[in-house]
Amino acid sequence: MLLAIPLTWLAIIDSLWSLPPSLLHLQLLIFHVLHLVSFQWEEVSGYDDAMNPIRTYQVCNVRELNQNNWLRSDFIPRKDVLRVYVEMKFTVRDCNSIPNIPGSCKETFNLFYYESDSDSATATSPFWMENPYMKVDTIAPDESFSMLESGRVNTKVRSFGPLSKAGFYLAFQDLGACMSLISVRVFYKKCSTTIANFAVFPETATGAEATSLVIAPGTCVPNALEVSVPLKLYCNGDGEWMVPVGACTCMAGFEPAMKETQCQACSPGTFKSKQGDSLCLPCPANSRASSGAASVCSCRNGYYRSDTDSPDSPCTTVPSAPRSVISSVNETSLVLEWSEPRDLGGRDDIFYNVICKKCLPERGMCSRCDDNVDISPRHLGLTQRRVAESILLNELRKGPFSHAHSMLCTNTTANSNSEAVCIQSVEPLVF
Prior knowledge:
Helices cover 1% and strands 45% of the residues. It is rod-shaped, with a radius of gyration of 46 Å. By secondary structure, it is mainly beta. The strands form 9 sheets. Strands 1, 3, 6, 7, 9, 10 and 12 form a 7-stranded antiparallel sheet that branches. The chain folds into 3 domains: 2-189, Jelly Rolls, CATH 2.60.120; 192-250, Sandwich (Immunoglobulin-like); 323-428, Immunoglobulin-like, CATH 2.60.40.
């Protein structure tokens, strides 16, 4: 006679923190109830190896032939899981230790499952047999016990899949063993949410087969940019991530933090000019960053960067005037020579400009030299510290000019905000 009496079975672990460290990547699928489907299975109290009280299901009808005793779980929702694992703890009596029993005594039991789209099982449906139930395996103990020994607990794990329906039932079939089913844990393996190469990959259940690789798409962490695509990570059948593809990196103004799982803003007074995995650096000389996440430090008042200077370059100022200007005049030309400024303003790319004017000092009158004056090698952008001004005397005699007025300026390659510092050289014209 078959019965279907619902009985609460055992307290299943209720959170991941109570799993052993080796199983932290596992997720319990459900806390379930078993149904006593045959009066031959009994729910009894007992003790585990540490003498802790437990509730178990046991069966021991070894003196009777043709045993076929089933125990079935409640309906277990599948969620999005493709492969399920079942951990069973049980004890089995050694048949040789039981006197006067027929040869039908077993030391094994069978594990089955049945898929369904709803909780529709009854005491008579599905039929208690293989097909419709799908057999997972015949479970044999590593150790059995005799009358004089305490029960030796065996632990076995089996898996099955791929699953496709809304849920399933577990079933345990006894064919004539003397055994106790102590606990059953139903779980699936997953790859937990992780960060790799500054990309976040979501929690991902393993595939339908133990060898399956499931692709998880990734997204860059905040303040990071993709540098190679696509972003993906593979979850293997053991719930472990492997084979990262693609990467992100921290954008300008942000640096790696928290063991390279975050991109944090550069603190005030520091900067990072380019995207990448480098750290923020203190602002260069004569510059500052008053707020965080700076990609460039602004120059302080009176300091500048050339248009060709990088953001990593220090800010510089205008050089002082050229020194020791020496001029000499002959009948046709004026020669200027000078020494470099005492203060270069932090630059190493000093250029000199020479401006020529014709003047009457007593009248306070000056005008720029015209094309009649040739400055060699040129009058702007000089790097050497000597020029010669060739003067066409006939043109000079036409005007009432008595002096040649040369202005020497130092410039740098700085932008238009920079200034020029000049000195003047005035020499009488010789006719």
